[in-house]
């Protein structure tokens, strides 16, 4: 599971690479700026690559971001999101039974208001009235948690 609110070190390395896209950043420079070890930088680079980003590395020059991922990762969504609360927290799964099941499980926690649960694939997706919903790889399968500030009896007025 990936979220939009953890993976802080990885996101800092990725943000620096994105902001210097046309130039190489040395492992030492990344280490100094982020106040982490060069081994930690290398591990973050390895993880970023595993997420589908293309990073060129050259001895004595460092790392350069060449291409972004095709994956719908939480930090790619929230990076330029302009919203008050929907999507500020995102959970992303490669596969799960149903985004709705997970959303129902975490929804009682009020801090989850506006949280989006995304899965690349659902094995037991549900539509309205719990009808089966086919949701193979390739679609965008998601649920949004909303704690309205009005009575649910007024929902039809929205």
Shape: elongated
Helix content: 25-40%
Q: Could you tell me the number of beta strands? A: 6
| Poorly predicted parts | none
Task: Indicate the radius of gyration in whole angstroms.
Answer: 19 Å
Number of domains: 2
Helix and strand pattern: EHHHEEHEHEE
Terminal Cα separation, in Å? 33 Å
Estimated share of beta-strand residues: 15-25%
Based on helices, strands and strand pairing, what is the structural class?
Answer: alpha+beta
Lateral strand order in the biggest sheet = 1-4-5-6
**What is the residue-averaged pLDDT?**
89
The second-level CATH architecture of the largest domain is 2-Layer Sandwich
CATH topology of the largest domain: the name is BirA Bifunctional Protein, domain 2
At the fourth level of CATH, the homologous superfamily of the largest domain is Bira Bifunctional Protein, Domain 2
Given this structure, which CATH class of the largest domain is correct? Answer: Alpha Beta
């Amino acid at each position: 599971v990936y979220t939009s609110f953890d993976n802080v070190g990885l996101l800092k390395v990725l943000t620096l690479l994105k902001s210097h896209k046309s130039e190489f950043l040395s492992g030492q420079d990344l280490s100094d700026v982020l106040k982490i070890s060069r081994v930690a930088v290398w591990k973050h680079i390895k993880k970023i690559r595993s997420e589908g980003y293309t990073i060129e590395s050259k001895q004595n020059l460092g790392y350069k971001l060449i291409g972004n991922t095709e994956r719908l990762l939480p930090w790619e969504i929230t990076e330029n999101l302009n919203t008050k609360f929907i999507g500020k927290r995102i959970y992303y799964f490669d596969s799960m039974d149903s985004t709705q099941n997970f959303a129902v499980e975490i929804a009682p926690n009020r801090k989850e208001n506006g949280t989006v649960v995304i899965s690349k694939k659902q094995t037991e997706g549900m539509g309205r009235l719990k009808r089966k919903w086919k949701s193979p790889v390739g679609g965008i399968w998601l649920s949004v948690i909303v704690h309205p500030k009005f009575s649910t009896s007024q929902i039809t007025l929205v």
